Amino acid sequence: MIDRADIDAFLAAPKASVAAMNWREKLSKKDPQWWEFVSALEVGGVVMEDAVFCVQWRSAKFGSQDKYNCALLFKGLRVYAVDFDPDGQHTNKVGIGRPWYKKRFGPGAHEHTWSDDGEGYCEPIDPAFPNFQALFEYFCQHAKLNVSGGFVSPPSVQMPLL
Predict the structure, then answer these.
(1) What is the longest distance spanned by two Cα atoms in the chain?
(2) For 4-33, how does the pLDDT look when each residue is reduced to its tens digit (9 = 90+)?
(3) Is residue 40 within 8 Å of residue 18, measured between CB atoms?
(4) Which of 5, 73, 88, 139 is the most exposed place for a label (fewest CB within 10 A)?
(5) Domain ranges of the chain
């Protein structure tokens, strides 16, 4: 079981990515359209084995819009994230006692924060981000994260002909 004090200390600490952004196709049988960037994190001058920064993006396809997210993983758990899903909805299954517990909302941007009963709780956020870079910058500011080289746009993707 993960200790809440450890999560709070991790989230409060300034963090830096070990690597500069370098997009790679995400290996996924379910949805091969995703791209991702993953980096270990340095906290307090030490590269942590159990801390990861992850960014994912899927280009618009078949009438849907671009979808993207940024996340901090700590000890294998998604402890903080910001997602933009212009086509989907989210229902909180954790977050007992929190304002959006068991509520459904979406589409749009939402912010995931840790709850005492686990990962997955989120709340809708405003502003509406005009683009992926704006969401990335919001995330980095709130995550206390400095990404080496800053934001790099995802690759241009051409959909295959049917």
Answers:
(1) 52
(2) 999 999 999 999 999 999 999 887 656 667
(3) yes
(4) 5
(5) 4-146
